[in-house]
Amino acid sequence: MKKYVIFSLFALLILSACVVSPGPSEYGGVTVSPLPAVVVLGSDPYYYQNGYYYYYQNNNWRYSKSRSGPWSDLPRSHWPKEIRHRDRNHYQDRDRYDDRYDDRYKDRDRDYRQDYHR
Predict the structure, then answer these.
(1) Region 72-83: what's the mean pLDDT?
(2) Residue 60 lies inside a defined structural domain of this protein
(3) Is 72 helix (H, G, I), strand (E, B) or coil?
(4) Does a structural domain hold residue 78?
(5) Number of folded domains that form the chain
(6) Which pLDDT band, with edges at 50, 70 and 90, does 5 fall under?
């Protein structure tokens, strides 16, 4: 009888060592909605959707509940198909660049031989 008690205590000790407990709730079980097919990023690489911030850096997407982190890797199945960058400065300076291009070629049809022979 004593052998059965010792054996059952030993078996209970061994079996309890095999139990795996789940980690903290913030590390697992989070359901993040996939990003749309086309994501347009502004001057900073953040995108906000459905209560989550998404951060794009070095061809990698990460997500978080707050913009300051902690960041987790976004599953590749949730990545967008295309990423576009909207540069605000390009649209503001567009007229200035177009004028510079036009000024560069404004004297192209001028005959410079007259100035040379004077």
Answers:
(1) 92
(2) yes
(3) strand
(4) yes
(5) 1
(6) confident
Distance, CA of 118 to CA of 107 (rounded, Å): 19
What single letter denotes the amino acid at residue 93?
Answer: D
Pick the residue with more confidence: 2 or 95?
2
Structural domain that includes position 84: 40-101
The reply to whether 118 falls in a domain is no
And the tokens for 113? 């031989």
Distance of CA 25 to the CA centre of its chain: 23
Say what the alpha-carbon torsion angle 28, 26, 78, 56 is, to the nearest 10 degrees. -140
| Measured distance CA(73)–CA(7) in Å, rounded | 46
d(CA 17, CA 10): 11
Tokens for 6, please give them: 């010792």
Local confidence band at 69 (pLDDT 50, 70, 90 cut-offs): confident
Joined tokens for residue 13: 């000790």
C-beta of residue 46 within 8 angstroms of C-beta of residue 54: yes
